[in-house]
Amino acid sequence: MSFFGMDCVKKKEQELERKLRANDREYNLPFKYATNAIKTSKYNPFTFLPLNLFEQFQRIANAYFLFLLVLQVIPQISSLSWFTTVVPLVLVLTVTAAKDATDDINRHRSDNQVNNRKVKVLIDRKLRSEKWLDVQVGDIIKLENNQFVTADLMLLSSSEPLNLVYIETAELDGETNLKVRQALTVTGDLGEDIEKLADFDGEVRCEPPNNRLDRFTGTLTYAGQKYSLDNEKILLRGTTLRNTGWCFGLVLFGGPETKLMQNCGKSTFKRTRIDRLMNVLVLCIFGFLAFMCTILAIGNCFWELNEGSQFTVFLPRQDGNDAGFSAFLTFWSYVIILNTVVPISLYVSVEIIRLGNSFYIDWDRKMYYSRSDTPAEARTTTLNEELGQIKYIFSDKTGTLTQNIMTFNKCSINGKSYGDVYDCTGQRLEITEHTERVDFSFNKLADPRFRFHDHSLVEAVKLENPEVHTFFRLLALCHTVMAEEKKEGELSYQAQSPDEGALVTAARNFGFVFRSRTPDSVSIVEMGQQRSYELLAILDFNNVRKRMSVIVRSPEGKLSLYCKGADTIIYERLHQSCSKLMDVTTEQLNEFAGEGLRTLVLAYKDLDEGYFNEWKQRHHEASTLLDDRESKLDELYEEIEKDLLLLGASAIEDKLQDGVPQTIEQLSKADIKIWVLTGDKQETAENIGYSCNLLQEEMNDVFIISANSPEDVRQELRDARTSMKPGEDSVFLPESILGKGVKVMADEAVNGEYGLVINGHSLAYALERSMELEFLRTACMCKAVICCRVTPLQKAQVVELVKKYKGAVTLAIGDGANDVSMIKAAHIGVGISGQEGMQAVLSSDYSFAQFRFLQRLLLVHGRWSYLRMCKFLRYFFYKNFTFTFVHFWFAFFCGFSAQTVYDQWFITLYNLVYTALPVLGMSLFDQDVNDVWSFQQPQLYVPGQLNLYFSKKAFFKCALHSCYSSMVLFFIPYAAMHDTVRGDGKDVADYQSFALLTQTCLLFAVTIQLGLEMSYWTAVNTFFVLGSLVMYFAVTFTMYSNSMFLMSPSAFPFIGTARNSLNQPNIWLTILLTSILCVLPVVTYRFLFIQLCPTINDKMMFKVRQAKASPAPPPRRTRIRRTSSRRSGYAFSHAQGYGDLVTSGRFLRRPAFSRSSGLINAGRTTTGFSPMGRSAGYSPTGRPQNAKVSDVEVTSLQMYRTITDPSL
After folding, report:
1. What residue spans carry the Basic residues bias annotation (predicted)?
2. Contact between 1098 and 929 (Cβ < 8 Å)
């Protein structure tokens, strides 16, 4: 255990293999496996005070002020009272400790909430309710429906047929579609028999704890037999049990050793770029302070040797105090006097400014999301100014850019487009919340949440348009969705992909209701009639086929093949009679894709019974081959999926969050690069990239990196870079290019705009040490980057790579547990409080409910915070350097005696009273332009990325300005008062009068300088500035009054100085002259700079003044429509293998009870389905109801309506 108790366990030897036995804690105890408790907090009641103080004194400034405090209690050295240091130091330590304690209490609460959840554990042959933290490796636990999985488990048995369980992995990979896990048959036979489970003594040998979510290797030894374990048998912590009554599992890994926690990454103390720069500057200031004190100490030594002997008559030296020892004491005396170059009030003020700007974020109503009653929250107060310097944004996709809600938006059937709404003049109307919705009340089984606005489609269904019926029949049959009906008429679908669920739901609402399935049949309700189709084959999806087909036999014995897939794939397999219909459909597909919809083409063909039987026999033979099975099956699929007849196309909207395209466009204009890191499939991520304007058709090229070997990945990266910079040498950067120290990789300019898409396999190779620089160099040349199928740890690795070699400020934004490691790795972590729990929010620095609020966080709050902090630091260093340097010049006129040039009360109150509020007012309220202009001119954000407002260069300019001002403030008053008398002939050239004049000149000079820095004057600012001057004179006249002197002569020695000096005209003329001379160079420099080379801020301020601070109303935001021919579809977000699972019966739930048809007026005639009181030929859209596309060849499907088919 560490000294402060930070480590919960001793670091044990590297675990090479895990061995455990079920129901045997004594056997497992010696291995010292981690318990299931998690700990993210840093302190406990005993360690808080020592550990927190230890951490705070690691800050150089705090340690420095503690050292000063020690010096000030030594009377031989100090000419200042100890309270001038101890009061602000204690204040800083207390405020920081209180903030740290609050943060840690919140972490404790979060840990306790998770650790104290209850779960049923099998102990002593009984199920007992235990806390999560008490669960140990080797325990058998029982989970019930909708429960979180407690630890990493081996599935033993479940309530479902064939020991299946359904889990949701949103917290791990961001996907909300259900996944299937299946227990071994030998453990599945244990069922829920407690006695059998208690007697289970299987031994598991498996891999040690690791962060790989997609693989698991191990073996189970039970009853003398050995069984293989893989990822399909494992339930990971962070997943949720769905649609499964109960299941039992054996705990393999607990708490910090679970794969979820292994992927969480380490919590690091985040410091802003300005903080790090401040540390460097403080060290420089310390060096400069030591340099000044050394010069003054040497000066004291010479003065004591040459002049000091003449004063020994009046000031006898103590024994042994020679010139050298006097110089030594003088050095430390000046360390105390000149310590105001780094005043502790600087750190107090910085914390107050950050806290104030954090409250602005919390209080911003424009970042409040009313639907979920979620305000924005600044969960940390130390990173605000960093928000104004972001260069790279790393975003999750699912739930962050999208709502993860798929909706059936439009479709094309037989060349006719459905989904748009038109007015009486034929003009297309924009669909809003108030647009009239289609009434599905005729269908009792309709999903009430489904929305559609084009009434003509439902009327086509009611009028029994055969093309429309066949379209929806295909959607109801060709899928792998599972239906669940707990109550009569209350259907819920469990789809492997959300877009497949959207298609089946659309068919359900339009009268073709998928009701249930068995391994060899699909039951649907067609317009009120229950019908069962024999399922003869599922030709499943894979990444090469990009399509799915089913072969079914209707109740009347008719054989049909229904197919849906990507347009380019289906078009190659259409019958030549569909050519003209295909052209029309293609135009409509382009229109759909231009709106960012996920498109899918549907086709069908009727099959001959004899041919199908012969094909089925060959299919059976191919499926039982041991060698070359996949290619044989593909050949058979190709053979039967040809000469298809085109039905139409569907268009699904993967709903983006509101304002996502506009936000990305704004951030891009601010020169912020956005990378999407998602666990989703490549094609899905690409499609969203186009929808949200991250990828654009106008781009010169979008590179796809999808190789499966290091050499191929390297070559693809080389080809991409060569395409972007043809004249560039494509030789790869050697590893030694960085040398011993890490150098920043400069941005490379390219001609045009490019995008990069890389999948998880390729990214794993690209992140290897030998290739990471090649990947980074290529990616940074692109405007947008999308990384697909990435693990949580890979997300963090990408962020770390950019942080390490680009030297840029990064921000990561996500909403799920799979984003936590990325959020922790970035300089700024933002959590979206959305559909996937609160894990991301709890680990974030800032949180809100919608991605669109990010632009306000950065372009408004971030930029203002950065601007205010930079102005504050520049001004603070100026006023304190000027204050301190006057002491330096005075030392040459006071015998280097460490005499202060100001009154001691002025020294104490200068930073705490006289100049504190004005600079805080500027730092809390100043803004160069308002939020509207900030959005209209996102280029204003760029100076923050380039560190233009505060840098080492700006600091040294400030120091030179202070040096000049201090010389003016010392020598002008000194010369003005030299040998000067009052109007009545009395002398005013004394030390106290000079001190009063100098400090008054100083206060006026720094106040005028503050006025020049301020861009936005408010009533509060004005009150602070004028009030501070009034306060100065009020305090000065009070302190220098007779009554105060009589009360304590030693504390208030400046009796009568104020009233004797400040009534003289020459004193006020001196104040005026010094003030003008101090600010004159600044005014001249700014005037010339603005005229000759104005910055973007100068130009914008000029525009604002021209507009009299009332900018024209922003242009009406129109929906961004993408003119793209690129299309994606259902096949792109599906997974291989579900067809086999359906037909094998392994996926099926228990048989449902008998059901009624669920439709009102279930007859099959038009009379039974009158079009809602309208005439049969009327269309609410004003278009002919059954208009055919001209010049489209008649297909067998179109002739279908003239044929009397008993199946209809």
Report:
1. 1116-1125
2. no
